[in-house]
Write a structure and sequence with these properties.
Layout: E1 2-10, E2 13-19, E3 24-29, H1 35-45, E4 61-69, H2 74-82, E5 94-102, E6 107-111, E7 114-116, H3 118-128, E8 129-132, H4 146-153, H5 155-187, H6 189-204, H7 212-224, H8 226-241, H9 250-267, H10 272-298, H11 303-323, H12 330-345, H13 347-393, E9 400-407, E10 409-410, E11 417-418, E12 426-433, E13 441-442, H14 449-463, E14 471-474, H15 483-497, E15 501-505, H16 509-512, E16 517-526, E17 529-536, H17 539-549, H18 557-585
Parallel strand pairs: 3-15, 3-16, 8-14, 14-15
Antiparallel strand pairs: 1-2, 1-4, 4-5, 5-6, 6-7, 9-12, 10-11, 12-13, 16-17
Helix pairs in contact: 2-3, 4-5, 5-13, 6-12, 7-11, 8-10, 9-10, 13-14, 14-15, 17-18
Length: 586
């Protein structure tokens, strides 16, 4: 619900702050006082177009900000999470929505201080607010929403069946996709098998062993550098054995050094560490000498071996480039190729099995869809009856209200098979005729703002709390009515407000007397500028305003008495409606 609204620099509004309550909030005032501007400001918070001409004269920008409580609206929560506007862990039930517009036409929208797109506000608005009047955002008028209206109305019977249908619809879609993929495999089988077999054979015949590539690369380096290796290894061996030019034996020299340092260590403790480490040095020299002896005797150069290695590594590189795969991954790649080749061997049996599963799933889905359609049809009939009674109460005695349910057909196969969608096999649209002898027309074709509002009131009265909408706004709902019908409108508005927040502009006392909270909008001139102020009326002030709305003077004794009686009678009706709601709730 909308808890607080702030509007700054909006047309004749300088800076206004309104704290709304739950229940029925009535806005009243003299004609031209700016009541509709409040509705238009709220309209901006649900993503409607912002015109820079609305900015108050001599001001640079306008601001509209709403503070909302969505603690009871699961649809809003799901929307905000889906669009990553809030996190699951940090979700708050209280949301601030802001719109700013400057003279250059730059338009900004914010949710909880974070910049967002206006389109997001539109989607969010669909989750919590209905605005009824001649020119306003009204999702209920769109045919795409009518199936949800019926489903929400019949939720106790329809929604469980819809949940079951959705599960079977998902299973059917998965099986259909599986069969289509298998058939594609069958159609491409020969070409695909030929390609797979070629790849498998080409790679397999190389008989690549684990770690072979690295071993060959190392051997190739040795053969390419044979002369350098032989020269370096021989010189090193000569140095160790004393076969070099100076005939000094490295091993003997190191042994002498070790002996001398050992003797020094026995005299001076500072040589002890060197003495211990010299032993390790001696062991390393002996190990190198032993290794070089075997290494040189085994060292051999073969031109044929060099050519063989180069050719094999070249073949490896071709495979890697051709199939974009590393040699270490060859094994797993061959395994996948073999698995796919094998899958084609059982393809015909797989298709037969998948086709059988799909046929079973289709039969099961059709049964579920038919059951859902039947329950939906019953709910539609019950809703038709309730709305028709509501329209009769609201002065549309000749109205015809119809909910058309037709089966969707899938013409792709050339036959009239049912078309399955996420909503089932039905298309739903609401039609209405308000005058005797006129054909029913789509709901959105109704032109009069007052008529639209009263039709929506009848529909919402029938729906009760079935949908997720938490705030409803009515403008022009009292256009063209008075007397007894106005009392019925007021009663129905209050009845709905027991489950949803209602904000309504009204010029009729018979409606305003049902208010839970009543706000008076007054236009005045200050320092040559037109201003408006909004006051929440106390009990005495409400009586005076109802007196004014009745056409009398607000301080007239007769008019005051009439207003008091009207409010008293409304309070009795309100009390009875609250009692009925409590009893039904229990």
């Amino acid at each position: 619900m909308l808890k607080e609204l702030q509007v700054k620099n909006f047309a004749i509004i300088d800076d206004v702050r309104i704290i709304f309550g739950s229940g029925l909030n009535i806005l009243s005032g003299e004609t031209g006082a700016g009541k509709t501007l409040i509705i238009e400001a709220i309209n901006l918070l649900i993503g409607e177009r912002a015109d820079s001409e609305l900015i108050r004269e001599d001001r640079d920008k306008l601001l509209v900000q709403g503070y909302f409580d969505f603690s009871r609206n699961t649809a809003v929560r799901q929307f905000l999470l889906k669009h990553n506007i809030v996190d699951e862990e940090d979700f708050q039930n209280y949301i601030v929505i802001s719109r700013e517009l400057n003279r250059t036409g730059k338009n900004k929208a914010f949710i909880n201080g974070l910049f967002t797109q206006v389109a997001i506000l539109k989607g969010l608005g669909d989750c919590f607010l209905d605005l009824h009047g001649q020119h306003y955002h009204q999702y209920l008028l769109e045919p795409r929403t009518h199936i949800k209206i019926v489903d929400d109305f019949g939720k106790d019977t329809v929604l469980p069946l819809k949940k079951e249908y959705l599960y079977k619809y998902g299973l059917y879609a998965d099986r259909k996709e599986k069969l289509e993929n298998l058939i594609k495999m069958q159609n491409n089988r020969d070409a695909r098998l030929q390609d797979l077999d070629y790849r498998y054979q080409e790679i397999s015949k190389l008989a690549i062993t684990e770690g072979e590539e690295k071993k060959l690369e190392n051997e190739l380096r040795i053969l390419k550098n044979f002369e350098s290796i032989y020269k370096l290894a021989s010189e090193t061996e000569d140095i160790i054995k004393g076969a070099g030019p100076d005939k000094s034996n490295l091993s003997d020299t190191i042994s002498l050094m070790q002996k001398n340092i050992g003797q020094l260590a026995s005299i001076d403790d500072r040589f002890k560490d060197f003495s211990e480490r010299m032993g390790l040095f001696t062991d390393i020299i002996e190990e190198i000498s032993h290794f070089l002896g075997g290494y040189l005797s085994d060292l051999d150069f073969s031109k044929d071996r060099l050519d063989t290695i180069q050719e094999r590594l070249y073949n490896f590189s071709l495979i890697k480039k051709k199939y974009d795969i590393g040699i270490p991954d060859i094994g797993s790649y061959l395994k996948k190729l073999k698995e796919e080749i094998d899958s084609y061997q059982s393809l015909d049996q797989d298709i037969e099995k998948a086709d059988s599963q799909l046929a079973f799933s289709l039969e099961d889905l059709l049964e579920s869809a038919t059951e859902l359609s039947s329950a939906r049809g019953k709910a539609a009939s019950q809703l038709e009856e309730k709305v028709h009674d509501g329209l009769d109460d609201l002065g549309f005695s000749s109205a015809v209200f119809e909910i058309e349910k037709r089966l969707l057909k899938d013409g792709s196969s050339g036959q009239d098979n049912p078309k399955f969608t996420k909503n089932g096999i039905d298309a739903i649209e609401i039609f209405i005729s308000l005058n005797t002898g006129e054909n029913t027309r789509p709901l959105k074709k109704v032109a009069s703002g007052g008529e639209i509002s009263r039709i929506m009131l009848a529909l919402k009265s029938a729906l009760g709390a079935a949908d997720n909408i938490s705030t409803m706004i009515f403008d022009e709902i009292d256009a063209g009515i008075g007397g007894a019908i106005a009392l019925v409108v007021g009663e129905k508005l209050f009845n709905i407000s027991l489950k949803k927040q209602i904000i309504a502009i009204s010029h009729l006392a018979q409606i305003a007397c049902f208010s839970t909270s009543h706000y008076f909008i007054d236009k005045y001139v200050q320092k040559g500028r037109t201003m408006i102020k909004i006051n929440k009326l106390g009990p005495g002030e409400k009586v005076e305003e109802i007196s004014r709305m009745l056409g009398g003077m607000k301080d007239s004794e007769i008019s005051i008495k009439h207003a008091g009686e009207l409010i008293k009678n409304a309070d009795i009706i309100k009390s009875n409606l609250k009692k009925e709601t409590t009893e039904i709730g229990n």
